[in-house]
Amino acid sequence: MKNIEHIGIAVKDMDKSIDLFTKLLGKKSYKTEDVLSENVRTVFFKTGENKIELLEALNDESPIAQFIAKKGEGIHHIAFEVENIFSEMKRLQNEGFTLLSTEP
What we know:
By secondary structure, this protein is an alpha+beta fold. It has three helices and five strands. It has helices at 14-25, 63-71, 85-94, and strands spanning 3-10, 31-35, 40-47, 50-57, 74-81.
């Protein structure tokens, strides 16, 4: 693994969260995207070399909605940058990790 690519945070209210992180970091987000395959809206902030991704459910079937219902708002995932995703997945399986998906 090369480094942490970003930290994903599940939020209930994107507008309130954008306002909070804009004030906290002293800068605006640089990217917004709806990922329809996951029923999620994402907003990215960058501070130095670090990135934070806010994730809001687009509907109740979204994995983010289910995550928030179970655990509340908070850190949802940490994304790592790797040289080769397939070899890294194999390495992690060999180390005993259970993958959530066989495709990246």
